[in-house]
Amino acid sequence: MTSALLGPPADIAGEASTGRPPRRRRTAGPRNTLTPGAGLGLGLAMLWFSLLVLIPLTAIIVTAGEGGWSSYVDVLASDQTWAAVKLTVTQALIVTVVNVVVGTTIAWVLVRDRFWGKSVLDVIIDVPFALPTIVAGLVLLSLYGPQSPLGLEWANTERAVMLALAFVTLPFIVRTVQPVLEELDHDVEEAAASLGATRGTIVRRIILPSLAPAIAAGAALSFARAISEYGSLVLLSGNLPFRTEVVSVRVLSFIENGNTQSAAALASVMLAVALFVIVALDIVQRRVANRG
Amino acid sequence: MVRVSTPVRWLLRTVAVGYVFLLVAWPVSLVAVQTFEDGFSNFVGIFSDENTVAALQLTLMVALWAVVINLIFGVTISILLVRYEFPGKRALSALIDIPLSVSPVVVGLALLLVYSGRTGWFGPSIESAGWQVIYDSPGMIMATCFVALPLIIREVVPVLTEIGDDQEQAARSLGASGRQTFLRITLPSIKWAVIYGVVLSLARSLGEFGAVKVVSGNVTGRTQTATLIVEAKYQNFEQTTAYSVAFLLAFVSIACLVVVAFLRPQHEI
Amino acid sequence: MSIDVKNVTKKFGDFVALDDVSVSLPKGQLTALLGPSGGGKSTLLRIIAGLDNADSGSVNIEGTDATRLPPQKRNVGFVFQHYAVFKHMTVAKNVAFGLEIRKRPKSEVERRVKELLELVHLSQFAHRLPSQLSGGQRQRMALARALAVEPSVLLLDEPFGALDAKVRKELRDWLRRLHDDVHVTTVFVTHDQEEALEVADEIVVINNGRVEQVGSPDQLYDEPANDFVMSFLGEVTHLSGISLRPHDIELESAPRLAGGVEGTISRMLRIGFEVRLTVLTVDGEEVSVVVSRTHARSLGIAEGSTVWLTPAAGATVIPRMAAVG
């Protein structure tokens, strides 16, 4: 459903932009086909985009660098910050690995299995995306908090962080893998079977390699989302320094203490990770496109 | 197609359903249970609390503005990216996705650094012109716009690419002006993608928390949105109110999902 | 002259799609732009329509300089290879589009749409959506849509290219008859020589961004300007330094005519009423020859037979160019 939304970036800038047969694709190098009206539209859109996104993000980088390299390092090297970074990255990695396994399984079940209630499952997958993050935290508290019907007391522990991250990142791998699995050519699997491959071999040698780029893309998005998560953790994790405090919470407490430079320093690291993920996704995407 | 043996199929099915049930379905249904534990009175009660009503109104206002702005910006950018060539196009299309992977707290901080009335880059001059951005609704609208920015674009771009420009060229060869072509041909073709994107943006905008928290100042009755009131009420041990507002938000966002699920298949292009 | 194209050049990056092309297309005729794909014929058509702009050169339509005019001001009808139907509009709405844009009175629009749908035999489908039509029907609808605005020229870009062979043949005959009724100056692009020869009054052969030859189907077939035109319009073989068509070679089982070239039949293939022979001459040339089945039988030839080849009297021959063939 929201595959276009959660999937890797749509290849907007590539040559396939006009959807027309080859004639147009001969265009070499950057060209400008803007009409005056379109130029005006682009100008206004860029003005708004700059005011909303580009200039504010630049402000973070500039502010982070204001105190020089040493103060930058000081912020990141402080014990409490370092603990937050370690916790966030560890939990994000664990959750990403869980998502790779479970997300791929769910995608498989949604595409290849048939059972009563499957379409409900399909809709529920998107719930974590649509649900406000603060509500997500509250929702998890009701099952894993103090009044847990399961008798689990996971609130204010590392497990709570993992739970929240798993909740909000659930749709990513499912929704990137699902469409690829749907379009997988059955002939190829049948060809492999006719050549004597067992089911296990077909899954390992044929299906998983075709899904790998989608899984990688979903994992990258899932990781990026996990390390930047804030809302769902507020009520669930208790934000205990050195124990359950994640990077976003650390940035917020810097902001609330009026220490914008430290906040910007930490935020710039998070931005770098986000940018890295976007570039990596772009490369994966292009590689897949070139594979034909 | 690979036919999985029955035990393996059951194993996979159990893992998938079990995981989603424990992580999503059960917890979400518990919120409904807790909201209506004592009948409808708690839920109806939130509408008599002045601050809660103000928060709900503010949330709706901010979300609607953000959706309208993102709609205009999103459709414009989508058409520019798909139908035109210009230098820097590829960079722009990559930058558009940034808001998807930036922490909401960082979004709030970024806006604070530029538009804060005291210390921001532009804030003081905007304030002296009589406008307040941070700790007021413009800042909250901007924060919401930021986080929901790519949603409409990501829906519209693939559809625009898919339909190609043949129909638009045909319209132009039949004498339609640029405006006529857009209104009569392009817009009807991308209508469902736009509606889908709008519904998603609305769900995202209503539920934004982190970024709004940073730029709003969280002043009760004035800049407190519905999501912020959930946090405040929960921490004040007014859990029933917290659950009721949370239920309302969850209900609206899930309703958005269901609407979208119904819209999509029939009108797939 | 209805359409005058002068010195038009168009490049896409490094690729030269049109290289200093000039053609004049007479009024009221049905002209084919014929050539291999990628040769520039579609680009030329799109430049005439204003859908692409030439890098240099000029386009004149019915006496007006149209070089800088946007497509909506040129009053041309354009029919696209993949129909470019407006998917969200009914058949009648599609046809009415151009008239509604021109703000014609409602009664006139209705009357015109009715007439046109009758003309293209789609009256009973007026209220269907294009997705409910077959490919051939969609293309007829696209044609009606283009004709509705009474264009001064009608341009068709590979109009039958996406259709299957049988429908293509039907539509081809139908286009010819339609043109005889409507008489609008029509230009269509095709890579199918049979289509061009059968339908067009005049053919412009375009290859590698250049005009190779302009003429009537007979002129092109009988007096091809060069090897390319000759080979594009039909099969070509070579016999002692000249290019000619395989069915224009006289085949004898004894050296009766002067200048006959001796050879051995290395392959013999019967397709329907004709027999295709490959003859290996004593000069080491492989020559293709087509004879009728009856003729082949009367000569009593088989693979391995020795035969003598001479160009038939009145055959179209051109000297063989060293570089080609």
TrEMBL record, chain A:
It is a multi-pass membrane protein. SUPFAM superfamilies: MetI-like. Residues 1-33 are annotated as: Disordered. The chain crosses the membrane at residues 33-62, 82-111, 123-145, 160-177, 206-227, 263-284. Gene3D superfamilies: MetI-like. Coiled coil: none annotated. CDD domains: TM_PBP2 (cd06261). InterPro entries: CysT_permease (IPR011865), MetI-like (IPR000515), MetI-like_sf (IPR035906), Sulph_transpt2 (IPR005667). Part of the ABC transporter complex (TC 3.A.1.6.1) involved in sulfate/thiosulfate import. Belongs to the binding-protein-dependent transport system permease family. CysTW subfamily. The complex is composed of two ATP-binding proteins (CysA), two transmembrane proteins (CysT and CysW) and a solute-binding protein (CysP). This is Sulfate transport system permease protein CysT. It comes from Nocardioides astragali.
UniProtKB/TrEMBL annotation, chain B:
It is found in: Membrane. It holds the Pfam family BPD_transp_1. SUPFAM superfamilies: MetI-like. It is a multi-pass membrane protein. InterPro entries: MetI-like (IPR000515), MetI-like_sf (IPR035906), Sulph_transpt2 (IPR005667). It comes from the Bacteria. The chain crosses the membrane at residues 12-33, 53-82, 94-115, 135-153, 182-203, 242-263. PANTHER family: SULFATE TRANSPORT SYSTEM PERMEASE PROTEIN (PTHR30406), SULFATE TRANSPORT SYSTEM PERMEASE PROTEIN CYSW (PTHR30406:SF1). Part of the ABC transporter complex CysAWTP (TC 3.A.1.6.1) involved in sulfate/thiosulfate import. Probably responsible for the translocation of the substrate across the membrane. This is Sulfate ABC transporter permease. It comes from Nocardioides astragali.
From TrEMBL, chain C:
Residues 3-233 form the ABC transporter domain. Transmembrane segments: none annotated. GO terms for molecular function: ATP binding. Keywords: ATP-binding, Cell membrane, Membrane, Nucleotide-binding, Sulfate transport, Translocase, Transport. The keyword Glycoprotein does not apply. Pfam families: ABC_tran, TOBE_3. SMART domains: AAA (SM00382). PANTHER family: SPERMIDINE/PUTRESCINE IMPORT ATP-BINDING PROTEIN POTA (PTHR42781), SPERMIDINE_PUTRESCINE IMPORT ATP-BINDING PROTEIN POTA (PTHR42781:SF4). This is Sulfate/molybdate ABC transporter ATP-binding protein. The lineage of its organism: Bacteria, Bacillati, Actinomycetota, Actinomycetes, Propionibacteriales.
